[in-house]
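Design request, tokens follow.
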């Protein structure tokens, strides 16, 4: 199940026409820095900006944080989508493939073999660029040497 905050006059088909920069967010206020960094990447690559939150249907989200992220997305001309799925990695892979995503912006991986590292390996050698944003909001490209 998916929910979007589409700008008026926009439909799903229109979303899929132009290449996308995707920002992956969790339901935390501090993910605002990821959306702002994603705006920079989208502007530099002349792509549309989308923010994606994947939630397990059985786990409640922080409603205040989600509302804040929807507002930040809107302020940065981004469409925010919430997907409900038990398998976050599979959902993310499908979203990237189905929506012409060429750039993915995330936070920093918190552990070895995290979902981010699995995602990087899945798209290694493909035409998808990955970027991480540290706690200070600095953007870092993920280099091939970073992908094991």
């Amino acid at each position: 199940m998916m929910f979007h905050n589409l700008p008026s006059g926009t439909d799903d088909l229109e979303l899929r026409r132009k290449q996308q920069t995707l920002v992956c967010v969790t339901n935390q206020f501090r993910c605002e820095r990821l959306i702002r960094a994603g705006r920079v990447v989208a502007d530099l690559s002349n792509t549309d900006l989308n923010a994606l939150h994947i939630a397990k249907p059985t786990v409640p989200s922080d409603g205040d944080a989600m509302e804040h992220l929807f507002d930040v997305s809107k302020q940065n001309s981004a469409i925010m989508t919430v997907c409900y799925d038990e398998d976050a990695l599979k959902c993310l892979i499908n979203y990237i493939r189905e929506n012409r995503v060429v750039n993915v912006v995330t936070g920093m991986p918190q552990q070895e073999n995290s979902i981010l590292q699995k995602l990087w390996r899945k798209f290694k050698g493909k035409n998808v660029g990955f970027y991480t944003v540290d706690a200070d909001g600095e953007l870092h490209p993920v280099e091939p040497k970073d992908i094991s």
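Comment from the thread starter after seeing the answer: thanks! Strands lie at 2-4, 20-24, 48-55, 78-84, 101-106, 129-133, 139-141.
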